[in-house]
Amino acid sequence: MADRRQVLRMGAVAAAAPALTAAVATPARATGHDHDRVTSEVFGHRGASGYRPEHTLASYELAARIGADYIEPDLVATADHVLVCRHEPEIGGTTDVASHPEFADRKKTVLLDGVSTTGWFVSDFTLAELKTLRAVERLPAVRQRNTLYNGLFQVPTFDEMLALRARLSRELGRDIGVIPETKHPTYHRALGLELETPLLRSLDHFGLNHRGAKVWIQSFESVNLRDLRPRTRVHLVFLTSASGTPFNDPKTYAQYLTPAGLKDLSRYADGIGPDKAQVIPRLADNTLGTPTSLVRDAHAAGLRVIPYTFRAENQFLPADYRVGTDPNAYGRALDEQITFLNAGIDGLFTDQADIGVLARRLR
Question: Mean pLDDT across the stretch 139-149?
Answer without folding.
Answer: 98
